[in-house]
Amino acid sequence: MALKPTTTTTTTTTTTTTTLLTLLILTLTLPTPISASPTAYGICQAGCAAVVTACYSAAGFTWGATLGATAPPTILACNSAFGTCQAACAVTLLIPTL
Q1: Which residue among 3, 10, 47, 82 is least packed, with the fewest CB closer than 10 Å?
Q2: Distance, CA of 37 to CA of 97 (rounded, Å)
Q3: pLDDT in the model for residue 48
């Protein structure tokens, strides 16, 4: 005489399958922290460098050339903006990306 599966076994199997699928979906949809901060920092620094290069070019100068105390106000403004941009980039190095 063969044993027939009861409805309890079928219900338990269905419940287990549903629970596993729910856990899988939750695992795949929950955000996980990624430490991509060094990458974000590098991208930010590259953006700052591109902007300061454009700023210098618009003023008629070459970025990286030493002007010292004779730097015109436009170049001083470019340098100040570059420093502010770099400071903002430093923050991206400290925070994890989600």
Answers
A1: 3
A2: 6
A3: 92
DSSP states along the chain: -PPPPPHHHHHHHHHHHHHHHHHHHHHHHS---B--HHHHHHHHHHHHHHHHHHHHHHHT--TT---GGG--HHHHHHHHHHHHHHHHHHHHHHS-B-
**Could you count the other beta carbons within 10 Å of the beta carbon of residue 56?**
19
**What's the pLDDT tens digit per position in 2-57?**
666 555 555 566 777 777 777 767 666 666 555 667 888 889 999 999 999 999 99
What is the residue-wise DSSP string for 77-88? HHHHHHHHHHHH
Phi and psi dihedrals of 34, rounded to 5?
-120, 135
